[in-house]
Amino acid sequence: MRHSNSKNLPYYFHPATKDSRWEPPAGTDPEKLKDFMAAHHSSRGVAPAKTAPQDGKIRCAHLLVKHRDSRRPASWREPKITRSKDEAIASIQQYEEQIKKYEANADDPEGKSLSDLATTESDCSSARKGGDLWVFRVASVAPSNSCVQGLLWAR
């Protein structure tokens, strides 16, 4: 892996072929990749969910779980996603419980922050930033993209 200076994100580079890509090469072990991302690409610096909007702005983050019928059933974690939509929804619900436990008590061993879970579990490239999407002006966020809906939005 190398680090993009322009996007400030890690990417995959094959030194022999000089091929670079955002998605992992075929045959990459997803569990080893999750462990690597957790160890080397922490989500430190991402605002926690409890942070109140300031000056009409809100920081938005998400955790995307794709399924085999998604528009593009591939991600940085898995070159080919085979889980069903029901399995994806079940995963999201499990993550939601972990996030709620963390927000209720950060010392709960069963709890995890959204940014920690997104770093290892999200199928979006924003996982490299703990699921961080950006800071939005509250008035500019369309209802369909609202962070309020973000956690349980399964597509």
What does this structure look like?
The protein has one domain: Chitinase A, domain 3 (Roll), CATH 3.10.50. 28% of the residues lie in helices and 14% in strands. The chain has four helices and five strands; from the N terminus they run βββαβααβα. It has helices spanning 30-40, 85-104, 114-121, 147-150, and strands spanning 2-3, 10-14, 19-21, 57-61, 132-137. Strand 2 and strand 3 (19-21) form a beta hairpin. Helix 1 (30-40) crosses helix 3. The longest helix is centred in the middle third of the chain and has 20 residues, at 85-104. The radius of gyration is 16 Å and the shape is globular. Mean pLDDT is 77; it is low at 44-51 and 145-155.
Q: TL;DR?
A:
By secondary structure, the chain is an alpha+beta fold. It is built from four helices and five strands, in the order βββαβααβα.
Strand order of the largest sheet: 1-2-3
From the 3D structure, determine the CATH topology: Chitinase A, domain 3
Indicate the proportion of strand residues. 5-15%
Mean pLDDT: 77
Reading off the top of the CATH hierarchy, the class is best stated as Alpha Beta
Question: What is the architecture at the second tier of CATH?
Answer: Roll
* Largest β-sheet summary: 3 strands, antiparallel
Number of helices: 4
- N- and C-termini, Cα separation: 29 Å
Poorly predicted regions: 44-51, 145-155
* Morphology call: globular
The SSE string, one letter per element, is EEEHEHHEH
| Cα-based radius of gyration, to the nearest Å | 16 Å
Give the proportion of residues in helices. Answer: 25-40%
